[in-house]
Design goal:
Elements: E1 7-10, H1 18-27, H2 29-34, E2 70-72, H3 87-94, E3 99-105, H4 108-123, H5 129-133, H6 138-151, E4 156-160, H7 167-175, H8 180-186, H9 200-213, H10 221-228, E5 239-240, H11 241-259, E6 277-278, H12 289-306
Parallel strand pairs: 1-2, 1-3, 3-4, 5-6
Amino acid sequence: MNEKRRSFLHVGHGKTGSSALQDFLEVNAPLLEEFGLSYPTGRGGEAGKLGMSGNGMLFLDVDDLNGGEIFSSELLFKDEYIDEKSVLISKLMQFRDSLTVIIYTRDVYDHFVSSWGQSIKRGGESHNIAQFAKKYRNFRKLRTFLEILSKRDIDFVIKNYSRTGGIEASFMSLVLPENRDAFMARATLATSKVNRSLTLAELELQRHMNKIFGNKPSGRISELFEKRLPDLPSDKLTVPQSAISVIQRSNSDAIAKINQYLNADDRLSLDPDPSIILDVEQTDYVFSAEHLEAIARFCSNKVQRES
């Protein structure tokens, strides 16, 4: 009798390639089935319809696992689920013998800067990066989650997204270790960026828009930038020393604990690369001709809606 495959739950905390991975899994759902895995959609197997949050919320309603299912969602990293009494932990306990949790983290300052940018782009954030550092708590949440999993003897793997060289191949090496290369040779990879980061100028404009509109969709000019300039490379963001000091003070215990669960090559450091330290506050921002056209279109559409 063949042993049933393990199933997998990817709890992707934000800004660790979750959107790209979910897009990859959905597009390659038929190929996954050829290799004995599945990416449930809850829509009769129709791919390409789940959106950027993946299929992981479906796991909370699962009554049984057939083996080989893959679930993924960053929404499961919300505070309400990072609790010993949460429905997520209860469900993980139910399938403890047949499921592995996969988590990706990211180098500290890469994640911090990317989280700040995402909170401006999608969350209505209006604080500058130094102010944002005071409420940044991702790694403390991650430590709590890992401690719960360890205490409950729930099988998990944690990897550093910053060291993967590509989350798709990294993930497949965890769920399909013996056939990863064969799978990747036939898999379809995304040709455009998913959830691209904003440039410094785009971030600063959206941040000031958030001061006016809050988190209302009508104020998100960033969505127009992404649509009209999908392949624009992001800028290298820098961090003021004041923010670095806050992060070091508030995360030292959490990072030390997380590193106990990471392989040596994946471990996190609170010592920043000197190249990211901001010495002089940036006050000049550059917009391209395409940016200006997008801004004009955004303003025109808003005036037409309100007139």
